[in-house]
Design a protein that fits this description.
This protein has 567 residues and is of the alpha/beta class. The chain has 14 helices and 25 strands. Helix content is 27%, strand content 23%.
Length: 567
C-alpha cells in the first residue's frame, strides 16, 4: 500500500505550495533552526481519531516527510479521567493505516516533572500563585472582551505560601476543586487567555502511565508549548481555534527557554463536513447511548469506522490534498469525500456480480443440466488484467427491477418481446413471466441466442440494455449492509435539537440478509474491496464467517444524495 501511494504521488502534477509549506521553505532559506524541520502530532487519547484528525495527520507528517524532517507522535495525556490505553493503540494503528511513520513516541506525562519544576520557578519569580476560589468565582472575575477582569484576592499571596500549597496539591493533600495554580499575567489584557489563566488543577485519579504519583496536572496551554520546546519542535501546526492561544504559547515559551531556539505555532483551517459531526464528546455520546454500534460503526466519521466501511487510506489522503489548507474556516460537501473514494476504488476494486433483490430467470432453450464457464475481467481499469470464471446455467438470479411486464418506451431491460445482453454472456429475448396467486412475478422466461456469447464474431450487434446475473445453482448467499449519512441535517453541530437522536437519519443503515453473489467471492478476505456491478463499492466486513460473508457498502456508483436532498 505504501509503494502504491508513493507511486501515485510521483505521478501527480506539480501543484502550488500551501501557506505552511511556504513558511517552511522560507525558514529553510533563512537557515532557521539549523535547517531542521521537526513537527509533532499531539492527540489527546480520549477517543478515536476521525476524518478531521486525518487532515492534521497529513500536514504534520507530510511536512516532515517532504522536507526530510521528523514528525513525532506525542500523546497529550494531561487529563487521566478521560484517557485510556485503548485510544492510544487505536491512534497508532490509524496513523500507520494512513501510511505515515513517526520518528519517536512521546507523552506529555514524560515531562510532568519538568513542567512541575517550571511551575515552581514561575511561583518563585512572581509569575504564578495558588488561588483558592471556586471555578465559578474565577470565571466571574475574568471580565468580558470589552471589560477588564478583577484581581483574585489571592493574587498577591506570599511566594512561600504558594510554594507550600502547590507542594501539598502535588502530594494529594488538597481536595479536588479546592485550589488551582494560576499564571500571574494581566487581568486587563485584551486577550482573555492572558487574564491569569489556570495552569494546574488537582485530579485524584490514577494516570495510565504514572499511576497515583501525581495529584496535579497541567492545563493544555501550559503543557503544549513547553512540550514542543523540550522536544525541539520547529513548526507546531494547529487548527484555527488556537490562534487566540498563540500569544500565551509564545509568552510561556519565552519564560521557559534558555537559548535562542524556540518553537513557532502556525494554524490552519479545520475540516468540517456536511452531514457529519466532529465533536469527540458528541461521538462519545453516540457510542455510549448505543445510537451506533461502536467507534468502528461504518457510519461514524472515525478513521476506524471509515476503514471498516471500505475507505482506503489513499482516498482519504487524496481528499485532504484536494481540499487543501487555508486560514479561513468553511464546510466541505460530503460528496467530495465520497467522490475521492469512488475514484480510488474504481482503479483498485475487483468487479463482481451480486443480485440484491432476486427473481429467477429461466432460459427455456438452454439445455437442462448444462453449464459453462465464462471468463470475465476482474477490473477493466487495472494495468495488468486478471480474469476469473463465472458459471452460466439454465436458471439464473437477476434483479427484480430488471424485469417489467408492462414497460414504458425507454425501458431497456427485460420485458416481453425485448432483448438484453446478460453481462459477459449471451443475448436473451424475454418471452414472458409466471406469477403467484397475489400477482407477484416469481419467474421470468427468455430464450438465448447461442451465437451471441460475448467475444464471438457476431456478438457485437447493438443491444441497448445489459444486466448482471448469477447462476441460481452456484449462487453464494451473502449479507449486505447498506450505509448512508448518519445525520439527516446538513449541519448537525448547529442544529437546535433537544436530543442528538432526533438528528439521526433513520435510513442510515439497511441490511439485506440474503443477496446472491458469484461463487468466486467465496473466501474473500476481510477488508478486501469490490465493485458490485451496477450497484456500488463494497468491502468485506469483520463480521464475516466461514459460513456467510458480510459486505459493507462503501459508496454508491453515483452521488444520489444530492437528488434526494433536492426533491
Amino acid at each position: 500500500m505504501e509503494k502504491e501511494m508513493k507511486a501515485a504521488e510521483s505521478n501527480k502534477p506539480e501543484k502550488s505550495l500551501n501557506f505552511i509549506e511556504q513558511i517552511v521553505e522560507e525558514d529553510l532559506r533563512n537557515g532557521l533552526n539549523d535547517g531542521r524541520v521537526q513537527t509533532r502530532f499531539p492527540p489527546e487519547p480520549n477517543g478515536y481519531l476521525h476524518i478531521g484528525h486525518a487532515k492534521a495527520v497529513c500536514i504534520d507528517f507530510g511536512i516532515a516527510e517532504k522536507y526530510n524532517g521528523v514528525c513525532n507522535l506525542r500523546f497529550d495525556d494531561t487529563n487521566p479521567v478521560k484517557e485510556e490505553v485503548e485510544y492510544i493503540e487505536a491512534i497508532k494503528e490509524d496513523i500507520k493505516w494512513l501510511g505515515f511513520e513517526w520518528g519517536n513516541i512521546y507523552y506529555a506525562s514524560d515531562y510532568f516533572q519538568q513542567l512541575y519544576d517550571f511551575a515552581v520557578r514561575l511561583i518563585k519569580e512572581g509569575h504564578a500563585y495558588v488561588d483558592e476560589q471556586t471555578s465559578e468565582q474565577i470565571a466571574a472575575q475574568k471580565g468580558t472582551p470589552t471589560q477588564p477582569g478583577v484581581h483574585s484576592p489571592y493574587r498577591d499571596r506570599p511566594v512561600e505560601e504558594s510554594l507550600e500549597l502547590f507542594a501539598q496539591m502535588r502530594n494529594g493533600e488538597i481536595a479536588e476543586g479546592k485550589m488551582v495554580l494560576r499564571a500571574k499575567i494581566d487581568m486587563g489584557h485584551s486577550n482573555m487567555h492572558f487574564r491569569d489563566p489556570i495552569i494546574y488543577r488537582i485530579i485524584h485519579h490514577p494516570h495510565h502511565r504514572t499511576g497515583r504519583e501525581w495529584s496535579v496536572y497541567p492545563m493544555y496551554d501550559f503543557a503544549h508549548g513547553q512540550s514542543d520546546y523540550f522536544e525541539g519542535v520547529t513548526h507546531s501546526i494547529c487548527t484555527l481555534e488556537f490562534v487566540v492561544h498563540r500569544p500565551l504559547y509564545d509568552y510561556l515559551v519565552e519564560l521557559l527557554k534558555t537559548d535562542d531556539y524556540r518553537p513557532h505555532q502556525y494554524e490552519f483551517n479545520r475540516l468540517n463536513l456536511t452531514y457529519t459531526m466532529m465533536s469527540k464528546r458528541k461521538l462519545m455520546e453516540l457510542v455510549n447511548r448505543g445510537l451506533v454500534h461502536g467507534w468502528d460503526d461504518p457510519r461514524m466519521p472515525t478513521l476506524v469506522g471509515l476503514r471498516r466501511r471500505g475507505y482506503t487510506p489513499r482516498s482519504i489522503r487524496n481528499f485532504v490534498d484536494m481540499i487543501g489548507y487555508t486560514k479561513y474556516d468553511g464546510t466541505i460537501d460530503m460528496a467530495m469525500l465520497e467522490s475521492a473514494v469512488r475514484e480510488d476504488l474504481n482503479k483498485v476494486a475487483d468487479r463482481a456480480a451480486v443480485v440484491t433483490d432476486p427473481v429467477k430467470l429461466v432460459i427455456t432453450n438452454y439445455p437442462e443440466g448444462q453449464s459453462e464457464q465464462l471468463s470475465v475481467v476482474n477490473n477493466p481499469e487495472a494495468e495488468q488484467k486478471e480474469y476469473h470464471d463465472i458459471t452460466f446455467t439454465r436458471e439464473l438470479w437477476i434483479e427484480r427491477s430488471d424485469f417489467m411486464e408492462d414497460a414504458p418506451k425507454k425501458y431497456f431491460r427485460l420485458t416481453p418481446g425485448q432483448e438484453v445482453r446478460l453481462r459477459g454472456a449471451y443475448i436473451v429475448l424475454c418471452t414472458g413471466c409466471k406469477k403467484d396467486d397475489d400477482g407477484n412475478v416469481v419467474e421470468v422466461y427468455a430464450t438465448y441466442d447461442p451465437e451471441s456469447k460475448s467475444g464471438m464474431a457476431n456478438a457485437n450487434r447493438k443491444i441497448k440494455g445489459t444486466i448482471h446475473w448469477v447462476s441460481a445453482e452456484h449462487a453464494l448467499p451473502v449479507e449486505l449492509r447498506l450505509y448512508d449519512r448518519l445525520f439527516k441535517v446538513e449541519d448537525p453541530a448547529a442544529a437546535n435539537a433537544d436530543d442528538l437522536a432526533e438528528l439521526l437519519n433513520p435510513d442510515s443503515e439497511q441490511v439485506i440478509p440474503t443477496a446472491y453473489a458469484e461463487e468466486w467471492l467465496k473466501g474473500a478476505e476481510k477488508g478486501h474491496h469490490y465493485q458490485f456491478v451496477r450497484n456500488g463499492y463494497y468491502a468485506v466486513d469483520k463480521d464475516s464467517t466461514d459460513d456467510k460473508l458480510v459486505f459493507n457498502r462503501t459508496v454508491g456508483l453515483k452521488d444520489t444524495w444530492a437528488k434526494q436532498k433536492n426533491k
